[in-house]
Amino acid sequence: MSDVWLFLAIGSLFLAIVLVGVFIDQTIAERHRAVRLLESQVTGASGQAAPRVDLREEELKENFGSRVFVPIVSKAGRVARRVTPLDARDRITKKLLVAGSPAGWDAERVLAFKIIGAIAGFVGSLVLLQIVSLSSFLQIVIIALLTFVGFIVPDSILNSRVEDRKKEILRTLSDTLDLLTISVEAGLSLNAAIAQVVRNVPGVLSSEFARMLQEIQLGVPRSDAFRHLAERTDVDELNAFALAMIQADIFGVSIASVLRTQAAQLRIKRRQAIEAKAQQTPVKIVFPLVLCVLPALFVVIVGPGAIQIFNSFINLQS
To answer: Sign of the CA dihedral 228, 224, 208, 29?
Structure first.
């Protein structure tokens, strides 16, 4: 019986690795296929004879794993979408937007991998219980715990992407606002100053400003473009900046003065955050000091005296 569970565990692990690999490979294949389709359309629009693209032939060019396992993931995603409340799907979509809309990620695929992770955790718990003998209560706890852990792993990965992106935006926001302020005070318009930032400041925030400029060039009002920027980033400091720019655009306030005020406030907030972290340092040092440094110091100081006292008692007894 243990051999059966061992083979089942190995098979489940192999299937999970294959699904993840196929998901990554399918994402790259979708990009290449989209590029080929766009190239064919551009070639046709330029006056040359555009080659006919057979979608079935393009699909058959993909490897066996993409044509077999990707439909399984898609089917699991559709099942999860039907049983998941609408507000939960909206929260996942919002997180994906704040995470930068990673290629190949959508709410349906996240839900699919949540189901796959829960099944993998359930099977793994059964295999573990065949190896380790525990009471019935602990068996139920382990099954529920591992199933829950497998279910929340995709959410944890997505939340990590969101937090990393927010930290990167917040790290470059102060310098970006300073450059915007200098550019506007030098005589550039706000759009030209944002374009200057896009050219000179690499990173996530620069790409978001580039997307905002594209929206403005397509005819979206600047206030709506700033509002979309705040929704895509979900950073409090950037939300305050976007709100100030929207109000300045509505009431006709000087853009340069608003930028100067926002840059000064952001510098103050950053200094306060640094001071708060510095004040937390003594508290964080206490536990390593008590657990690592003080025991060794105690042994070094008290050890020789304790050895001498022990030897003295031995001599007295002898």
So the answer is: positive
Residue 299 within any structural domain of the chain: no
Structural domain span for residue 158: 2-163
Is the same domain home to 13 and 53?
Answer: yes
* CB atoms inside a 10 Å sphere around CB 217: 10
- DSSP letters of 280-296? HHHHHHHHHIIIIIHHH
How far is residue 220's CA from residue 227's CA, in Å, rounded to a whole number?
Answer: 11
Convert the pLDDT of each residue in 262-313 to its tens digit: 999 998 988 898 899 888 888 888 888 888 888 888 888 888 888 888 888 8
What are 97-128's pLDDT values in tens digits?
Answer: 898 888 767 888 888 888 888 888 888 888 88
CA distance 59 to 274: 53
* In a shared domain, residues 181 and 241: yes
In a domain, residue 281? The reply is no
Q: Same structural domain for residues 42 and 72? A: yes
Residue 116 sits in the same domain as residue 19 = yes
Residue 103 in 3-state DSSP? coil
209: Cβ–Cβ under 8 A, 6 or more apart, which residues?
176, 194, 197, 198, 229
Report the domain count for the chain: 2
Q: Are 106 and 30 in contact (CB under 8 A)?
A: no
CB burial of residue 290 (10 Å; 0-12, 13-18, 19+): exposed
Q: What is d(CA 297, CA 239) in angstroms, rounded to the nearest whole number?
A: 50
Residue 239: CA count within 13 A, CB half-sphere:
8
Angle made by CA atoms 283, 289, 292, in degrees to the nearest 5: 145
Residue 283 lies in a domain: no
CA 289 to chain CA mean position, Å: 33
Same domain, 172 and 149: no
* Short-list 219, 221, 174, 222, CA closest to 201: 174
Task: Give the global pTM.
Answer: 0.71
